[in-house]
């Protein structure tokens, strides 16, 4: 089986519900940016392998976040008002994921010094790569905002992205 389909050669791609849209559609902008975020998190994970203190803890959580970003992609690719009930159920993104992320943030916050100013992106390869992921996440959030407003994706998708930044 070939790994290419040629179905996008005319500048369109399909959503999970089968609908075809132009590749520069706002849905694909959001999907592409969340994919870029997942890749940047993957790079951070590789750098964290060398960190004996935070490495194992963060690698576990970041890997989970990568999986959840795949779920977010499925949610975005299934417009809420134009998809079957079974597809909507299969791709729903529950607030339980936001709640879990908040728990992790609260856990880590107890270990870190109190923030009194903005942080300059630096601090080693892992830290710098996480700063890149954070800024890509902000862009993803901006691309998802109009989709959430138009009820194309679940509101919890936007909230989850917001918590990550």
Automatic annotation (TrEMBL):
MF (Gene Ontology): ATP binding; corrinoid adenosyltransferase activity
GO biological process, one term: cobalamin metabolic process
Family: Belongs to the Cob(I)alamin adenosyltransferase family.
Oligomeric form and interacting partners: Homotrimer.
Protein function: Converts cob(I)alamin to adenosylcobalamin (adenosylcob(III)alamin), a coenzyme for methylmalonyl-CoA mutase, therefore participates in the final step of the vitamin B12 conversion. Generates adenosylcobalamin (AdoCbl) and directly delivers the cofactor to MUT in a transfer that is stimulated by ATP-binding to MMAB and gated by MMAA.
Keyword Nucleotide-binding: yes
Keywords linked to the UniProt accession: ATP-binding, Nucleotide-binding, Transferase
Stored Pfam families: Cob_adeno_trans (PF01923)
Known catalytic reactions: cob(I)alamin-[corrinoid adenosyltransferase] + ATP = apo-[corrinoid adenosyltransferase] + adenosylcob(III)alamin + triphosphate
InterPro entries with a match to the protein in the record: CblAdoTrfase-like, CblAdoTrfase-like_sf, PduO-typ
Cobalamin adenosyltransferase-like domain span: 3-163
Gene3D superfamilies the record matches: Cobalamin adenosyltransferase-like
Protein name: Corrinoid adenosyltransferase MMAB
